[in-house]
Amino acid sequence: MKKRIAVLFGTALLAGMMTACGGDTAETTAAATTAAETAAETEAAAEETKAAAEETEAAAEIVAPAEDVAMQYISIEDAKADIGADGYTFFDVRKAADYETGHIPGAVSADMDAAKEGDFEAGVATMQAATDGLDDNLVIICYSGKKYAQATTNVLSAIGYDMSKVYTLEGGMTAWSETYPDDVETGAPAAEEAAAEIVAPAEDVAMQYVSAEDAAGLLNTEGTTIFDVRKAEDYAAGHIPGAVSVDMDAAKEGDFEAGVANMQPAVEGLNDDLILVCYSGKRYAQAATNVLSALGYDMSKVYTLEGGMEAWNEAQPDNLETAE
Question: Which residue, 107, 135, 169, 265, has most beta carbons within 10 Å?
Fold first, then answer.
């Protein structure tokens, strides 16, 4: 009898040990799975951080050349022969107002006045948008083939455009007007004429807002682009790091077509959440919002910085960039 009890006791003890061992195995497996998932998440986060850092570093590497980049020229006659030819794009880099007064047929307005005045970052913003996806020969048109063309050439070199394809119109618009006085267009850019159906909304489009604190948390994050829609000179004086200058002063003053002309290249191929930065989160942002709506941008992705640059300066006084 004692022997039987001992056998039963031993069997029960063995069963208990096996059960406990099985429980430890399950717990160990679950812990290993959790650790693997955590490691995977950490690795993914590290990759995202690395990608963001690389993008920031790449942007930071766009610096003005130490000396003016040498320009190559194209004659008035040769330029005229290339109008409308495949593989050629004409950039009129004069002030937008002078472009509208008269420009070479088919030329695209890319106002480089700010760059000519020393705002290299504004020039980069303008040219990056204008050349996005482009690999054409470029003909640069300024007033006389000097200062504006030089500023543009410097920027194009800095952003890595193939400089063997960049030409300055010899003598600029002055020479063109003297040689071909009847071969001049006036008014809105060709791109605007092609988009004649883009009309201002009958009423202001409702804006949605993001706080300065939330916006600060979105700096340099993938899928978010910040547009500074104030005057280019105020952007140069101080702006949110990474923000792109899209001057909407003319649009705020009622020139809807000018607003479209500035905003179209800025959003071409873009599907990001947009944060609009103006002075106080009102008129400039409203003008930009109206233009974006008319262009068909997804308005659920468009936010205005609440309180504008004034609120940012109060909340983030040390988190600013200035044009060099």
Answer: 169
Q: Which residues does residue 103 pair with via DSSP β-bridges, in sequence order?
A: 185
Domain borders along the chain are 73-187, 209-315
Class of domain 73-187: alpha beta
Domain 209-315 in the same topology as domain 73-187: yes
Q: How far apart are CA 216 and CA 311, in angstroms?
A: 12
The structure's pTM equals 0.48
Query: What homologous superfamily is domain 209-315 in, according to CATH?
Result: Rhodanese-like domain (3.40.250.10)
Closest CA to 302 of 275, 270, 283: 275
Q: Which residue has the tokens 């986060």?
A: 45
- Helix orientation angle between 147-158 and 120-131, rounded to the nearest 10 degrees: 70
Rg of the chain, C-alpha, whole Å: 29
| pLDDT higher than threshold 80 for residue 289 | yes
3 pLDDT above the threshold of 60: no
